[in-house]
Amino acid sequence: MDLNVTGLSAAVVGGDIRAAAHVAALLEGGAVVTVLAPDVTATIDDLAARGLVTWAPRDPGPGELDAFDLVLRGHPRAAETDRILDTGSVTLVGGGPGDPGLVTVAGRAAIERADVIVTDRLAPLAALGWARADVEVVDVAKIPGGRSTSQDDINQLLVEHAKAGRHVVRFKGGDNFVFGRGGEELLACHEAGIATHVVPGVSSAIAAPALAGIPVTHRGLTQGFTVVSGHVPPGHPDSTLDYAALAHAGTSIVVLMGVRTLEAICAALVEGGLDPTTPAAVVADGSLPSQHVVRATVATIAGAAADVRPPAVAVIGDVADVEGLA
Predict the structure, then answer these.
(1) Catalytic positions, please?
(2) Where in the chain is the domain with CATH 3.40.50.720?
(3) pLDDT at position 81, please?
């Protein structure tokens, strides 16, 4: 956003994904944001639940917008084209941890060319401002414990739009292939005969700790790091992780999607032999203005971070003690 909005009170009228892009840009610029709309996309609903915006579930009343320093409005979906088109393509774009400045040059170019953008809630939505005015934006946000679009439906959306001759960007936070199910989307497109391109993104597994001053590796301290999914807890039938082996691996342990399961994960690591005084940290909202860090030990981090909401990245290992690195 070109305007200096730091500290301004801003109203966004409308709750569609274009409105969400305005909200993301305003938050990035430091504005205090209120959304006025009877219904909102899952992405705005999630921002409101996290306390990052205020959502008034109604249309603005007479004169109500006069109280705001700045007013922006969402845009209706672009009309469907009547053109007969050849088969299009799908580009999987990793958007990085949330700051649009961390989207790659190739990622921005793909967004600028797109006819359709299929986006997640953790993608840097302010980057949608780079898209053409007539782009169709489809919100397929997956909210933990809330509204969600199935992966099969997302795959079908990508294929159907591409078969209609559109150039589709699948826009996600982080990197599509690091717990992003990008591999499934790639296979679905290949099976449908759709030309597919991949633009890697900056993974939050590395970026969020780095932005908190935590290196996942450090000379003389650790020679590697292990990234694991906390989507299911230890002992769950779908868990394939050997936590005792992780406890003895001698690497930094980075946990993605582990806010809900962090207590069980830490307990399994300690039970597997990891020193309970091992430093640990949780980085929430990495790269966003709301970024914050909680530090403790592997035995106490779950309690210390009990109020943290997703998205967040946990780091377990000596590297989490920044002061101790000196």
Answers:
(1) 120, 142, 257
(2) 9-73
(3) 36
